[in-house]
């Protein structure tokens, strides 16, 4: 058995446990730092919206000899005050300008063909009006809002509203970090970016639902006992699913990283860059939030319920009673050297995983010498 498989088994059985819920303040602090940076980028630099959202004109020049500096100078000489010029691959140059009329577009196209030594058929032109760009922006926001409402309704029906709110917090967390990194890096926001953002929100939701489903299983009927609090049962669920979540995320990130490195670095595909960056950032943020944000927030909301507060009180009372009983038993053994329990072994409390029904390995000692020495008839009567 590999080390990862061994660790996963020990986490699932409760032999090893990381206190994700108990140390949630540390993880909240890490998220707060990333969110602060994202908000600084979002409200400081702002998003670099593509012409599909803000309107404008885009000229794509096919030339293996022209440079970005030549294209910028040619566009400025044609009357464009602040053109955005980038190279796409090894044989294309993209020039973006503010909104233009058809006559202005034809004049710039002629100027570019003359200065860069290409024919006008080698220059592609795309004109987007500002009204169409604002309509695309409105539609994208509407799609995002509808998606979030559908998520809340689904999780409320399948789980309950507190878990739905926790999942929504995690989704907003992922969304803000992804958009903030776009603002900080200055990457252009295109329709491919919107597709990528919606995709990673779905992936983040999938990961959160997997964890919440295990939490639901571990906490079913928990208020009828006094063995563990809701947070402890949820933390066990996190430990039982954390390896699966990480493995799934790594498998998802590998092809996205390949798109970034090969599709963008070698092939120079700009559309792939916009899509892959959103997927990469969002998938990583979604994995983090499903483990360190969603479940701890859900536990905080659940622990405010009166029945969960009563459960926590009963669990604390039971454990304090067990500690007192153990102390008295230890004192009794100390006064009677060599004394043991009936089985000849020291008694130990059951682990949390065993209390909640998770599979554990239980070792049983041999019967005591006193029981083996009794006649069979007496043992049956007992």
UniProtKB/TrEMBL annotation:
Residues 373-382 have a biased composition (Basic residues). It is a multi-pass membrane protein. Keywords: Cell membrane, Membrane, Protein transport, Translocation, Transmembrane, Transmembrane helix, Transport. Residues 310-382 are annotated as: Disordered. InterPro entries: SecD/SecF_arch_bac, SecD/SecF_bac, SecD/SecF_CS, SecD_SecF_C, SecD_SecF_C_bact, SecF_bac. It holds the Pfam family SecD_SecF_C. The keyword DNA repair does not apply. GO terms for cellular component: plasma membrane. The chain crosses the membrane at residues 27-44, 140-159, 166-185, 191-212, 250-269, 275-299. SUPFAM superfamilies: Multidrug efflux transporter AcrB transmembrane domain (SSF82866). One of its GO terms (molecular function) is protein-transporting ATPase activity. Residues 117-303 form the Protein export membrane protein SecD/SecF C-terminal domain. It is found in: Cell membrane. One of its GO terms (biological process) is intracellular protein transport. This is Protein translocase subunit SecF. It comes from freshwater metagenome.
